[in-house]
Amino acid sequence: MKIANHQLKDDDLLSFDFKTPNMSGKFANGLPDTLVIHFTAGSSAESSARHLCKPSAKASAHLVVGRDGKVYQLAPFNRVAWHAGRSTWKDRSGLNQYAIGIEIDNAGQLTDNGNGFYQTWFGKNLPVSEVFHGRHRNQSEPSYWHAYTEPQIARVFELCELLIDHYGITEIVGHEEIAPGRKVDPGPAFPLDKLRDQLLGDTRDQDAPAPKPASKEVIVNASQLNIRKGPSTSFQTVAAPLEQGTRVRTLNKEDGWVEVEYCIRGWVSGQYLKAPD
After folding, report:
1. What is the sign of the dihedral through the CA atoms of 81, 84, 85 and 90?
2. 170: left (phi over 0), alpha (psi -120 to 50) or beta
3. What are phi and psi of 233, to 5 degrees?
4. Cα(56)–Cα(79) distance, rounded to whole angstroms?
5. 170: how many CB neighbours lie within 10 A of its CB?
6. Could you give the CA distance from residue 259 to residue 228 in angstroms, rounded to a whole number?
7. What is the distance between the alpha carbons of residues 21 and 103, in angstroms, rounded to a whole number?
8. Is residue 64 within 8 Å of residue 48, measured between CB atoms?
9. Cα separation of 124 and 260, whole Å?
10. What's the rounded Cα separation, in Å, for the pair 232 and 221?
């Protein structure tokens, strides 16, 4: 994939079927220098792209990324799109005039309906395999979120790297960071900090803790294994017990407990885990 004349080129998963009228003039000289990451809170990438091309929406973005990695380009990268709204970051306000907006097809925050499914704001039930449990950077308690797909995340990383190289981007921010209290996207299910670290360089100081060990896959070796908010039995469970044979990825270890990830994230007793055969 490449950029020519402020348009993406040379990829089979590109669509220019939708062109938004919801944009202003060209960026000022030296801009854009920022990327803003959003989720659509819609039911599909195509429906969100179509909506952002309606004059009545009074909103738009440069890109929409589908769950299969398909990319819809709605506006050229040299034009100001209407994605950030009321926003501030460092000494700037009104981020539209500085930033390219990337919308990712994702339903956002979910409601646990108590029967093993999680409901979107528009009434669709999602299975646990599509759910992420975690704490939002602007919230105090963990909650349920629509998980992003691996093709989506890989595509967003690819797009951001391309835009950084082409436009000299120096900042990547989430909508939740430039409009806290008003917006929660892209939410904790998206690896925003990893994106920044990987593409813009590690900004941690030299006295920061050593990196955590790489995760590995293990198997639940008990008929049922409780998964908890923290590393002891004093913490509440975060979901139904994990069944024997479930494969999970390890994240952290503490006093015989292991933080694992399997659609959701939580702590289990390490004695009931084993390496795959």
Report:
1. negative
2. alpha
3. -70, -10
4. 19
5. 10
6. 9
7. 17
8. yes
9. 27
10. 18
Measured torsion, CA atoms of residues 95, 99, 104, 108, in degrees rounded to the nearest 10: -20
The helix (H) or strand (E) run that includes residue 64 is strand 63-65
Say what the pLDDT of residue 97 is: 98
Longest CA pairwise span in the chain (Å): 63
Distance between CA 229 and CA 234 in Å, rounded? Answer: 9
Residue pair 235/142 in contact by the 8 Å Cβ criterion: no
Element (H, E) at 52: helix 45-52
Cα distance between residue 56 and residue 54, in whole Å? 5
Q: And the tokens for 155?
A: 């595509």
Contacts of 40 (CB under 8 A, 6+ apart): 48, 64, 103, 104, 105, 106
Distances (CA, A) of 216 to 35, 132, 249: 32, 19, 5
DSSP 96-141: GGTEEEEEE----EEEE-SSSEEE-TTS-EEEGGGEEEEE-TT-SS
Site of tokens 């292991």: 258
> Residue 49 is which amino acid?
A
**Tens-place pLDDT, residues 168-226:** 999 999 999 999 999 999 999 999 999 999 999 844 333 434 444 556 788 888 888 99
Burial (CB count <10 Å: 0-12, 13-18, 19+), residue 231: buried
Q: Is the pTM of this model over 0.85?
A: no
pLDDT tens per residue, range 256-268: 888 887 766 777 8
